[in-house]
Structure formats: C-alpha cells, structure tokens
Design a protein that fits this description.
Layout (H helix, E strand, L loop, with lengths): L2 H9 L7 E7 L6 E7 L2 E8 L6 H16 L17 E3 L2 E7 L11 H18 L16 H11 L3 H6 L2 H15 L2 H6 L2 E4 L8 E4 L2 E4 L6 E4 L1 H10 L13 H4 L7 H12 L6 H22 L8 H6 L9 H11 L4
Length: about 325
C-alpha cells in the first residue's frame, strides 16, 4: 500500500471534507506528524503514534486534553472519528486527529514571551491538581542520572578518548553529586504535580491569551522542578540561534544560563503558584541532570559517526553558572 492509500484509509474514517493535500511535519519527537489541508488551508493535524505507545496512555492523554480545555488551558483537542472514538488504529499504529492551531513560535529574547511561559506553566501545574483519573502512566523518574552515566562511559572507554575529553570527569562528578543528593526518596519528597515533562519551545505556541501546550506524551506526576529546569534551559537561556525543534542539534545546542531571564521566568511562575526554599535548593540538580540527559539522550538520535563530537560539544557551558543562578533566585523571588 502506497502512502496516499495509507492516508486515505485513515482519514476516510473522519468526516472532515475533501482533502486537498497532506504535508509531513518535522519535529524532534519520535512520533510522526502530518498537516492536513482542506480547500487549500491547514485545518487538521494527524499524529502517528510510535509503535511503543500504550493504548491506555493515549486514552489518558485525550481525557487530559478534554479536562484542560474545560478549565481554560489550551491544548489540541482530539477529533472523533466516524465510530465516535478519538483514536484510530490502522496497520498496527495508532492515530489521533486534532484541529490545526495557528500561533506564534517562541521569540528568543522576548521578555513578554518569557513571562507568559513562566505564568502559563504555573497555570498548567495548578490546573492539573484537579485532574482525576483511575489510570496513571507507568513512568518512572524523568532524567535519571544512571542511564546518562552509562552513555558517557560507553563513549569514553580508553585513555586516548579521555585525554581528548577532559570535561568527562566534570560530567561524571556532577552525576555523582546528583545521585548522592537527589536520591529517589528526595525526588519523591518534593512537591509532586501533573507536569508537562517535555517543556520546550517546540511543544508550545503563543496565542493572544497565552500558551497552547502540545505533545502531552510525557505528562505524569513528577516534581514540578522538572518543568522549571527545562524552562530555564530552553526558554530563559542565552543562545546563539533560535531553537529548531525538528533539528536535534539545534534543540540540544549548548547555552548560557541567564540570571536576568531566569528571574523573569521563575518570578512569573511564582506569582501564580509559590515555590518554597527547599525546592530552590534542589533546582541546581534538576537543571544539571536535565542538561546532561539532553545530550546523552540526543546522542542516540544523531548519526553514529557524529555521536562522539555531538556529546562533547561545549558540554560544560550550561553547568558552570547553575549554582550562582539559584543563589540569585533565592535572594530575589518573593515568598521564598
């Protein structure tokens, strides 16, 4: 079956009118996406879920989309197929169709966009407190340090490799500190909320009234510091170029943490739902492990011959000022 027949078979199960074209939508996620054009306009977005997707997880995501929509948090909303379901199964894969949402992408160096990101992330967390479900995703800890350590050690197995990458000792030392101080017990003792789990500019759009949150695949109950660490790395940091979420090199490019931008972002969050001092004490570990895992996970998505250079590239830049950053946040954020 060719690709045209493939899509015809899937979309014939929806009452959406005559399709004029279908374009592939590149993204940094493992799930494929397609823009569905009706009468010359982008009207729908079709996601083909990865083969590892659990059907109950997808049902959970759709019930969450419905809950958020009813509580003024913008997310895509799944369209019912002709059988009255929001999930279509075809040839061993699952598909979801949503209305296409126009919006702006994140503008680097925009204080307004930074404020909105912090404020609306807090609203996402606050609203998620009321979500009730008998089912929960079987996710463990996001960004555990152990697998990252194995990835780095696998790349550097001889003296020559280690000499070419003296930063390795710093990375391994940071992972040691994370394992010692952010144990699983400590991780679970921190305020747990329904977090996005993959909060970066490729997974949001800006509308007049705030953010639209996309890609809820990693939504689960975790410490909210996970999302805040991603916010500081991906929204509040200083970068040489805009983030292209379809390009793993761009998405995981090294960055410099910004005192000013981080304060804007975290203060906006804190104005909606307050952080406590204990959380800020552990924030450095979340930022560091999030960054290290970005590189270790990303190394599996680049060509084999490029992995060594990729994982080494400016690896320490985001780590160097983390402690100074969190000291400044503690001094300047109200109520902490």
């Amino acid at each position: 079956m060719d690709q045209i027949d493939h899509f015809d078979s899937i979309l014939s199960n929806y009452n959406i009118g005559e399709i004029s074209s279908i374009t592939s939508h590149e993204s940094g996620t493992k799930n494929k996406g397609y823009e569905i054009w009706i009468e010359g306009q982008k009207k729908y977005f079709l996601r083909e879920k990865d083969s590892s997707t659990i059907y109950k997880d997808l049902e959970y995501d759709h019930s969450l989309m419905n809950y958020f929509s009813e509580n003024h948090i913008s997310t895509p909303f799944p369209v019912n197929n002709n059988d009255g379901n929001t999930i279509t199964e075809f040839s061993g894969s699952y598909y979801e169709l949503t209305k296409y949402i126009e919006g702006e992408t994140f503008i680097r160096d925009s204080e307004d966009h930074l404020l909105i990101a912090g404020r609306d992330l807090a609203k996402f967390h606050l609203t998620g407190i009321g979500f009730q479900s008998v089912y929960s995703k079987s996710f463990g800890r996001i960004d555990p340090p152990g697998p990252a350590r194995k990835t780095f050690n696998a790349f550097f197995t001889n003296d020559k490799d280690n000499l070419d990458f003296p930063e390795l000792n710093v990375v391994l030392h940071e992972l040691n500190l994370i394992e010692e101080n952010l144990t699983d017990d400590v991780y679970r003792s921190l305020p747990q909320m329904l977090i996005h789990g993959d909060f970066h500019p490729g997974n949001v759009k800006y509308l007049d009234d705030g953010l639209v949150f996309f890609d809820l695949d990693w939504v689960s109950i975790q410490p909210r510091l996970q999302d805040l660490a991603y916010g500081i790395l991906f929204f509040a940091s200083i970068r040489d170029d805009d983030i292209d979420p379809s390009n793993i090199y761009s998405l995981t490019a090294s960055c410099k943490l910004s005192m000013k931008n981080s304060l804007i972002f975290v203060s906006a969050y804190n104005s909606v739902i307050e952080l406590d001092r204990k959380e800020l004490n552990y924030l450095p570990y979340f930022i560091k492990v999030a960054w290290i895992c970005c590189r270790s996970d990303g190394s599996q998505k680049v060509p084999l011959e490029d992995r060594l250079n990729y994982i080494k590239e400016d690896i320490l830049r985001p780590i160097e000022s983390v402690n100074e950053l969190t000291d400044e946040l503690s001094k300047n954020i109200k109520n902490v």
